[in-house]
Amino acid sequence: MSWFVALLVLSALIFFHELGHYAAARLMGVYVEVFSIGFGSKVASFKRWGTEWRIAMIPLGGYVKMKGQDDSDPSKKSYDTDSYNVKTPLQKIFILLAGPLANFVLAFFLYFVIALGGPQVASPVIGEVLADSPAQKAGLLKNDTILQINDQEIATWKEMAEIISQAKGSLSLQVKREGYIESLLLTPELKETTNIYGEVIQKKMIGIQSAGITHTLELGIVETLSYATEQTIFASTLIFTGVKKLLFGEVPASELGGVISIVKVTSDATDAGWMAVFFFAALISVNLGVLNLLPIPALDGGHIMFNLYEFITKRVPSEAVLIKLTIAGWVILFSLMGLGLYNDINRLMG
Which of 154, 186, 236, 305 is deepest in the core (most CB within 10 A)? Predict the structure, then answer.
């Protein structure tokens, strides 16, 4: 059942992406021939507003087929007034950006709903104190709760970790211990650790681990909007950085995941409750938005690149170049999908 919910979530995210393209195309006066969720053979369809709305056999993507646009054959063009081809480069870019933008907007909405439901965050409660660490030398103990650092109130483990990592000297801590308040002084040390991308980095730490205790964030409407905005920006930055590191070889290709990883993560989140599903759905939605902005000819980013070229040079790229780059784009895209699938299978078999 959880795998079915995961596929349903993925299909919904793809639907909103394509809906962005559809709405922008119609707004620009472009006739949309097909709106498909999935690829391959048609499973079901109906016609409404002049468009064929279709569900296809392979639920791993989707597309909006506009009049005059055919990624499989860029030479197939139409110059009717309701065709994609007759629109200006800026109008085309607007249509192309609308898909990824829809994913970012959807992510913001999901984070907003999460905030309304009261997100769970890690409390600044110490689980373990490492031997010979600054924390042990200062007298911190298991189950201590960090209340303040340098007179700044601490509400979450994340806040505490950020302050420690940015420390420029000694830190004054106010700690709650068995109902009493203790004041301690310690100096973080630069230690070797790994970041979320698996890279070895130097980071200031004090030698403590979380107790795994969480609490519910109580947010007003302003804080809710702020939370949704910050989470959307954080997720976008995280994925943009991850893609950059992958492309420049800073992160091994074995870290690349495919659709199986996406479905599995969402499936696992289903077992953890609706808020976990919303959280991962928001993250995957941002992921779809970011990946579609990559300058690969088969993706939105590639088409945006062609239109920017036309806008700047006032010349349309030659048909021969378009065909060659589009073929190259499909090769790159299928190679990445194949690598992601290969890594997914290795993780499942390992």
Answer: 186
